[in-house]
């Protein structure tokens, strides 16, 4: 039987025998109010609104008000008016990934957007809004994961199943760091969520940053900034659902999301439209409830399954690393990588501030010799940073403090070590060897 006919038969078999529908009673802003089927629906359920131009608009139930269901659309409300039919969709949304999804680019609804034909459906569905594995049954984080960036591998070592945040203001190099991680990491599978990104950057990321080799082991989920808030939020959930599928196959998955802040902004639009009260900086309470539900889905799996190593970017507003979303995410994750504008302005990329960044699996994941080497480098970086202003002004006199003198001596070599080209990869072993060479320490 040809594959197209088999796929058509599979789709026909999923069609419901009974269609239940209500009518649109009001349209206000981003919300559609529907009556007649409120007892058939629940929060998170789906409806399809039939617009007057014949378009079928998928919507999600976000709440109820005065015996009416409140729906939010996945697309434009053009053509939707009073009396339009709203058909109930059965069940909560699931996604059916397979290995054939590797190398593909999909939207927030799991539909292909790369022009390579339809996506095959796997036999086992994964709920889009899945729950994290039970905490008492999860495995511990695994061995070190080579991410290909010297500064991260040596000073901020990441382990399999760890969750790290990349915190930076706009234009400081988050996307460049993400592209290096996607290209050079040693993970078996990469699932990349581009949430609220500029539309022009998608092709750049796929062709230039990922390349054919990187794309072949990746699934890219994209929702651009012009799409509805529901699509942007759904893209984040779908990214984790696809990663969970490969994790349950026993694979070590690298899940990257750019960015969590735009997920939070999408949830803010949804919450405020549904009538939630604004709290900190206009974010409603559901934002801070949804963040841990999303981020906790990454991490080690159950015994016998793989792991999801999560790398999530956070766009800090006004370079304020203590703003509400950054503060909430930092408390959930297992470490944070801080990109600093001043370092980037000096021409050192990636602009990682080593002293302000933390990996919570260190020093436990390192050998004593590795910890000693990293400790020496951190001590010298801290000594130089404490006196940096006086050194630049010429107010420090050499010989005043032997430790500062030593830091000044090694600073150019350490700066060169932390600087890395976008196309340059350094594995874990080479990073430690290069750092030891700076201090004249025999390695290993």
TrEMBL record:
Probable catalytic subunit of a protein translocase for flagellum-specific export, or a proton translocase involved in local circuits at the flagellum. Keywords: ATP synthesis, ATP-binding, Bacterial flagellum biogenesis, Bacterial flagellum protein export, Cell projection, Cilium, Cytoplasm, Flagellum, Hydrogen ion transport, Ion transport, Nucleotide-binding, Protein transport, Translocase, Transport. Its main location: cytoplasm. It catalyses: ATP + H2O + cellular proteinSide 1 = ADP + phosphate + cellular proteinSide 2. Residues 115-137 are annotated as: Disordered. This is Flagellum-specific ATP synthase. The lineage of its organism: Bacteria, Pseudomonadati, Pseudomonadota, Alphaproteobacteria, Rhodospirillales. Belongs to the ATPase alpha/beta chains family. Residues 160-344 form the AAA+ ATPase domain. Its EC number is 7.1.2.2. InterPro entries: AAA+_ATPase, ATPase_a/bsu_AS, ATPase_alpha/beta_chains, ATPase_F1/V1/A1_a/bsu_N, ATPase_F1/V1/A1_a/bsu_nucl-bd, ATPase_T3SS_FliI/YscN, FliI_clade3, P-loop_NTPase. It is found in: Cytoplasm. CDD domains: ATP-synt_flagellum-secretory_path_III_C, ATP-synt_flagellum-secretory_path_III_N, ATPase_flagellum-secretory_path_III. It is an enzyme of class 7 (translocase). NCBIfam families: FliI_clade3 (TIGR03498), fliI_yscN (TIGR01026). The keyword Transport applies. PANTHER family: ATP SYNTHASE, SPI-1 TYPE 3 SECRETION SYSTEM ATPASE. It holds the Pfam family T3SS_ATPase_C.
């Amino acid at each position: 039987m040809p594959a197209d006919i088999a796929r058509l038969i599979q789709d026909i078999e999923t069609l419901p025998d009974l269609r239940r529908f209500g009518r649109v009673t009001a349209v206000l802003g981003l919300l559609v109010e529907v009556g007649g089927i409120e007892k058939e629906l629940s929060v998170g359920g789906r409806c399809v609104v039939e617009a007057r131009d014949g378009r079928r608009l998928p919507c999600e139930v976000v709440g109820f008000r005065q015996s009416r269901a409140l729906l939010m659309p996945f697309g434009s409300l053009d053509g939707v008016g009073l009396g339009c039919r709203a058909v109930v969709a059965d069940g909560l949304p699931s996604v059916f990934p397979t290995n054939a999804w590797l190398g593909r680019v999909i939207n927030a609804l799991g539909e292909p957007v790369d022009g390579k034909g339809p996506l095959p459906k796997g036999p086992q569905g994964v709920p889009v809004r899945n729950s994290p594995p039970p905490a008492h049954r999860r495995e511990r984080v695994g061995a070190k994961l080579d991410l290909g960036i010297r500064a991260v591998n040596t000073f901020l070592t990441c382990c399999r199943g760890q969750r790290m945040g990349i915190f930076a203001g706009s234009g400081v190099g988050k996307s460049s760091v993400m592209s290096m991680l996607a290209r050079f990491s040693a993970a078996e599978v990469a699932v990349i969520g581009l949430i609220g990104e500029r539309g022009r950057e998608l092709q750049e990321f796929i062709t230039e940053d990922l390349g054919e080799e990187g794309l072949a082991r990746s699934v890219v989920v994209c929702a651009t900034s012009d799409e509805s808030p529901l699509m942007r939020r759904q893209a984040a959930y779908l990214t984790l659902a696809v990663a969970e599928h490969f994790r349950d196959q026993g694979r070590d998955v690298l899940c990257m999301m750019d960015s969590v802040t735009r997920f939070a902004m999408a949830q803010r639009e949804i919450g405020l439209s549904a009538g939630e009260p604004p709290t900190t900086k206009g974010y409603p309470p559901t934002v801070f409830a949804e963040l841990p539900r999303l981020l906790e889905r990454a991490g080690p799996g159950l015994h016998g399954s793989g792991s999801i190593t999560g790398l999530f970017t956070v766009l800090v507003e006004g370079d304020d690393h203590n703003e509400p979303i950054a503060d909430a995410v930092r408390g959930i994750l297992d470490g944070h990588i801080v990109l600093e504008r001043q370092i980037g302005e000096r021409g050192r990329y990636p602009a990682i501030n080593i002293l302000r960044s933390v990996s919570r699996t260190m020093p436990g994941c390192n050998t004593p010799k590795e910890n000693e080497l990293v400790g020496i480098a951190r001590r010298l970086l801290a000594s130089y940073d404490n006196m940096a202003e006086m050194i630049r002004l010429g107010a420090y006199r050499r010989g005043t403090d032997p430790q500062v003198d030593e830091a000044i001596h090694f600073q150019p070599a350490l700066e060169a070590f932390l600087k890395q080209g976008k196309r340059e990869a350094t594995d874990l072993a080479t990073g430690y060897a290069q750092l030891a060479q700076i201090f004249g320490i025999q390695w290993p």
